[in-house]
Amino acid sequence: MTGVRPELGSEPSRSSTGGAGWGCREPGVGARLAPVDSRLSWLSPGPLVASRNDVLARWLGDPSDSQRREWLRRLDSYAEAAGVSPPSRDRLVTRFADRDHISVAVLGDPGEGDASQYVVVPVLERVAGDTDLGIICSDVIYPAGGVRAYADRFYRAYADYQGPLYGLPGNHDWYDGLSGFMTAFCDAPPDAGAPSPAVPGPWWKRLLRQLLWRRAPKATAADVADMRWYRDAESQQATQPGPYCAIDAGPVRLVLIDVGIDGHIDSDQAAWLREVSAGDRPKILLTGKPLYTYAAFQPCPIEGGGDVNDIVIDPAHNYVAAIGGDDHNYQRYPVRQPDGRTILYLVAGGSGAYLSATHQIPNVDRLAPAVHEEDFRCYPLRGDSLAHFSRRYDKLLGFGLGRLVIDPDDATAVMAERVGITPPRPGSSTVPARARRAADRIFPLPARGSAPAHNLMSVLFDSNAVPQFKSFLRLDATSGEIVVSCWAATGCREHEIDPVLEDRMRATRQPDGRWVWASETPGRPVP
User: Fold this and answer.
1) Are 218 and 186 within 8 A, CB to CB?
2) Where are the alpha helices (DSSP H) in 21-162?
3) Which of 106, 286, 355, 375 has the fewest CB atoms within 10 Å of its CB?
4) Cβ-contact 328, 336 below 8 angstroms
């Protein structure tokens, strides 16, 4: 298959500490592309206050469903006012439907707008600049949406990417009522304002929502025109028919869903999802929250009953993969189905936001017989995650004295012991007592196996230091083959020139129509 770039690829982190970016000789140019003074600090009160709708939605009710329905109604009315046909009921993008081969770049949770996002740009241009289209998978903009925030976090960041970009919103994109997302991706007027966040409930909840809910920042058509100057080539233009849609991408159908703030879909979207999931065409689901992460299944409830994964695993729908953002790293779970099929579940949220720790991922054999530790992959490796966070812990909690810093080789050996696995790359044969004491202090933070805790502590200990451990996906598909490649962005200059291929999975279509996945990175092939 063309496009998978076999000629590129430094040795991955599973082969050497150098492949992970440790001992970087020269920082890359990507970080210097970020706007001056663009650092987004989650320790400052501004981003936390701007993101308050996340907490309020859990206390007072998530208004995403009602707002989404109103946005879709508005899209129809905008089209009628312009004298054009409204978006079709199937919300299907067909411009790529006649391709024999398709290539797609998938960027997950990119939008901090600082060095952590821009280090990905040179690698993206090197290994995926020729893709037919790109998809932003969850949290296009941090911390809380807003039309004007798209200038540096979307338009400027990907000015040199020549393909069209589609997107699906994450919870942070909903904190402005989705107004920024709808303007950027669905061509809604920027001055329309977000629909009212009304949710049924007692009077005191309605009052608190009225008083405390964050409203969408204002923007003008001139603001949007200025931003779109960065991506004004004809090849870069795209308008999608809603916050959820399907893209007929040649041999495959890409199904993008919108899970709002709290990670569910409404009944209207569920009915649409079942319709676009029908048929033999192989499908890949893209969602704002992963269905498998941190060695556990994560439900995605449907309003009125059921779960999105019920639709994914139905053999009649022929899903071969499901990709989710929200957790800011890469994780791979080839999940064996009772009928013998394997569906590839990926976490792909590492394209620009703070790093979510992977050293909190337990042994994946707990998911057996669905998936096994030897078939699992993550980036960064658990040991590299521990080593990375130890430096930040030392700076913030250890007064920068180096007592909490753990060498990557020592961290690899410690994590292999704790998880009960063979070290993914050769580590230290003898771990110093000092390193073990440091690991004992660091490992419980965040709380073991707790997703809210690991995300909270990842935010508090965010760092843009090299290595960055960012990543994105490249998908390549024909009628008989689908290849998913995970490319790393360490922030090192050498890896911008010769990028690191961290993981690759290949699915081949069998004579009976089944798709069989196999790993092309070290480890036992997936059955």
Assistant:
1) no
2) 45-50, 53-60, 64-82, 115-118, 120-128, 150
3) 375
4) no
